[in-house]
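Hi L., both proteins are below.
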Amino acid sequence: MQMRLWSISTTYLDRAGLVALWRESLLARAVLKGETKGYINHPQLIRFKLLKDPIAGINAYLKIVYDESVKRGYKFSKDKLKTMKFNEKLIVSKGQIDFEFNHLLKKLKIRDKNMFEKLRNIAEIAVNPLFFVKDGGIDMWERGNKM
């Protein structure tokens, strides 16, 4: 399984993408809490590991995913949410945002052509509200980064 914790807004994800993000975010929390032996060195977790409180960070991330699911009428389990005070911002580069958006467009072109058509000409890419965007290319932790 390839974990993807999107930095872009959850509103861009199709049904399959949002459901996968929920599952992968729950897995990420289990990894960060030391509850599983797999994925402990997964690059998608680096941003959270750099936080003062990685568990509070991933819980805040899960809340955003959950909120998007509620807007769509999905039945994600609210019992899985653990609220904790979280005032930090995760840092993401502009290049990473562009990379993720283009990566999503490639997926949507195959599995959800309507969503692809809706998103393909977006000029200003919205990000997950937990993130602060800085200048730069694709982030070093991104798999396949050739920088």
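That was the first. Here is the second:
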Amino acid sequence: MCLAVPGKVVEIIGDDPLLRSAKVSFSGVVKQVSLTCTPEAKLGDYVLVHVGVAISTVDPEEAAQTFEYLKQMGELDGIELPPAPGSPSTQSHPSP
């Protein structure tokens, strides 16, 4: 089965829409992917990546839900998932 996995754009490389790429973080694993199909993608956005190409942008909640589905399918065994936006682990806690 072929999957598209969401990742967060952490760096954009280049300005040419046909050659533009990004470094995308998948729970800490960073890969370089093509942004040719997603010219609207910007730093901090989540993108769905399939075979090294970002095929669409998604909101953070949709990215978290996709990670959860992949986890339930056993496709992410051994990968630590990012916390869902707004979950207690993403909120800052005062130091003791």
